[in-house]
Amino acid sequence: MSNRSIFIAATGQHVGKTTLCLGIIAGLKKRYPSVGFIKPVGQQHVTIDPSTIVDKDAVLFKKHFHLPTSWKNMSPVIIPSGFTRDYIDQKITEKHLLENIHRSYKEVMDANAFTVVEGTGHVGVGSIVNLNNAKVAAELGLDMVIIASGGLGSSHDELSLNIALCEQYGVKVRGVILNRVIDEKREMILNYFPRSLKKWNIPLIGCVPYNSFLDKPTIRDFESLFDTQLLSGEKHHYRHFISFRLVAGSVGTFKNEIIPSELIITPATRDDIIFAYIEQNEKREKDLEGGLILTGRHPPSKDSLEALSKTNIPSLYAPVCSFDAMKMITSFTAKIRTKDLPKIERAIKLVEENIDFDLLTTSVQNSVV
């Protein structure tokens, strides 16, 4: 069992594992001469070159922390579409996948004083190819830290399922980190959650508060969501918005209700709304710092496109109705991107201030073995 590495898993998707790993690596870099990162099994991937696809988190960590590790070692196994069928058809073998993981992990660990190994989704993700997080942690001989949403009952229930799988594979859970803990509940959770963990003799090593800024999407997120490109405002790809508003009423009412840092969703045929927004933005001494998503079957008019092109307002056209666009936006979960430095810096500061790094890096005996 290595005391120079830790496996970070979560109780589910969208719990904040990537955000927590950012802060954890930043904190470890202040305590160790070098820190490595590997995501043994990845699902959401990006193409680096025609022969290299890697997990998106590997890209974020390599670029932000300027890690020298090769792409291959940071992301040894990727599960793209069709991979599980190939595995079941025995075109891909578990032995080959494990060899890649072991080889990459050893190279990363040997080159660094401490290594963060990031899992994928909840502890059972990857079971269809026999590479779930518990199995991989067991193969590498690593303790696991599990990240859960910041609640009490439901968070504990989710933890119990994930801990049970760790027990099955003989993986020791070094500790639990609660993420996005609401301020009003923080004192109560800090009182009760450690006591609820005593049945497993597992410590609470972090209680990270909820921060609304980290959940705010950018216009770059919406480019991906609607599979489109900006019409204007290229330099504001990573602008964040405080609120969203669907505008379908009169232009007069719209003018009276304009506020800063708001994303406006309106039909692309509403030239009156588009020109009113441009006018209001230009009239103010300070930029409204807002944005526009234009919707509908019919794209913006030539006049609107020309007017927008002369502004710095980030805008895009989404060929769906406004109602569907709002549904997609309100259900969207923003992820941290490599170039979104304000969000990265906020996440790192928040995590560093609320993690017990001594407990994180020190293996202590507990009952989950």
Q: What is the 3D form? A: globular
Q: So, the CATH homologous superfamily of the largest domain?
A: P-loop containing nucleotide triphosphate hydrolases
> What would CATH call the architecture of the largest domain?
3-Layer(aba) Sandwich
> Largest beta sheet, briefly?
6 strands, parallel
- CATH top level label of the largest domain: Alpha Beta
Structural class: alpha/beta
Residues in helices, as a percent range: 40-55%
Counted by DSSP, the helix tally is 15
**Order of SSEs, N→C?**
EHEEEEHHEHHEHEHEHEHEEHEHEHEHHH
Distance between the ends:
12 Å
Low-confidence stretches: none
Query: Quaternary state, please?
Result: single chain
State the domain count: 2
Brief overview, please?
The protein has 15 helices and 15 strands.
Fold topology:
Blueprint (H helix, E strand, L loop, with lengths): L4 E6 L6 H13 L5 E4 L2 E2 L2 E5 L2 E4 H10 L5 H4 L2 E2 L4 H6 L5 H18 L2 E9 L10 H8 L3 E6 L3 H17 L3 E9 L1 H15 L6 E6 L9 H7 L4 E3 L10 E4 L4 H6 L5 E6 L3 H13 L7 E5 L6 H8 L5 E4 L3 H9 L10 H12 L4 H5 L8
Helix pairs in contact: 1-14, 11-12
Which short descriptors sum up this protein?
single chain; Udp-n-acetylmuramoylalanyl-d-glutamate--2,6- Diaminopimelate Ligase, Chain: A, domain 1; 369 residues
